[in-house]
Amino acid sequence: MAAVAITTVLAWALDLVQRGVKVMVDVPQGLPPFTLPPVLPDLAAALAVPALLIAIIGFVESVSVSPTLAAKRRERIDPDQELIGLGAANLGAAITGGFARSAVNFDAGAETPAAGAFTALGLALASVSLTLLLHLLPQATLAATIIVAVLSLVDLGILRRACAYSRADFAAVAVTILATLLLGVEVGVSAGVALSLLLHLLRSARPHIAEVGRAPGTEHVRNIHRHAVETNPSVLSVRIDESLTFYNARVLEDCILDRIAGSTVREVIFACSAINEIDFSALETLEEFDHQLREAGIRLHLSEVKGPVMDRLKGTRFLTDLSGQVFISQHEACRAMPESGTALWPLTAAEQQRSGCLATKGRPQRNREPRAQGLAPRVGPRSRDRHDAESFLDDPRQLGRPAALGGRGACHAPLDPIRH
């Protein structure tokens, strides 16, 4: 307030207007009339698209700024409530808060929504009685007031951190900042949202596909290009780290077909632990892919399918006609494959203990639930990285199919060495 008063007095005393300093000049006095705007079909049609864009930009701007302010006070923002609040504000006054106004309130120490009510009251009083005093207020003073308030929210270190973490995210941040500074908040936020969506689509269109094998002595599977693992030359075990949609299912199909071309792979296992959804187009691609593998004498198996995904696959032609089986874990799938006996897949310590093969203090451990009595050996607790697949345990057809194909060895060629 002191800066506003001093610069206004200086502009009057030194006649700065004649020296080229821009001032506010004409500030409308009084409150706007309380009238309803005319509701005309042509006017509504002309304003529909711009109003929708303004609403989206206003909401995105709000949810972009509010987390920054909330983080400084260790608070959390609910985007749903934020949207309701913005809608209520528009219905009440057709005016919503902006980045600069929020920053000014925060810098002034506002703690509750009552700050907005007092701000509105102050603006009403100023509109009625103080507009003449603002006639000579330099525009530079008004701009400096906003800049000082906003500077506390500027974090230039985000550019360095984003560049060190991800070049793509750095590009999104840089484009958003430059567009905001040069073209305005609306254009900057729009550019940032559009670029982020584009980057997400590009990442999803090229899913990470890892060929995996078993870590020695464990039931865990890991990337063959990152770890020393045990593999079966006749089995291609693949982990898909993305949901399957219409724009990336063909990439998976091409990748697997390139991998098995000219090889002696007889079994393909998809580890589906990272697949959260399979859309209809991807499902049709999987059906066609399974048919191609069947004609080549290769079976397709699934493992670690999540419950919600399996619920949607139940009853589909893909699962009914699947050439292979559905397994609860990738380890069990690999153990069930032909030529995956103890020579290639030795029993782990946990498996030996469950099967009564470990000796305790020099004596053989006794199996308390022998097969001779018609009971299956006791199964220990599941490892932590296994995903919930109980939704298809009640389907004996899926877990009880025999696996009877033979196979021969093959060298493991990398799927994509750069991305693994």
List the helices and strands and how they pair.
Elements: H1 2-13, H2 41-72, H3 79-93, H4 99-107, H5 114-129, H6 139-151, H7 157-165, H8 167-183, H9 185-205, E1 209-214, E2 221-223, E3 235-240, H10 249-260, E4 267-271, H11 280-295, E5 299-303, H12 307-313, H13 317-320, E6 326-327, H14 330-336, H15 349-354, E7 359-360, E8 363-364, H16 396-399
Parallel strand pairs: 3-4, 4-5, 5-6
Antiparallel strand pairs: 1-2, 1-3, 7-8
Helix pairs in contact: 2-3, 2-4, 2-9, 4-6, 7-8, 8-9
Strand content: 5-15%
Q: What name does the CATH topology of the largest domain carry?
A: Transcription Regulator spoIIAA
Biggest sheet: strands, sense, closure? 6 strands, mixed
Mean pLDDT: 75
Task: Classify the helix fraction into a percent range.
Answer: 40-55%
Please supply descriptive tags for the structure shown above:
alpha/beta; Transcription Regulator spoIIAA; two-stranded antiparallel sheet; 8 strands; elongated; disordered C terminus
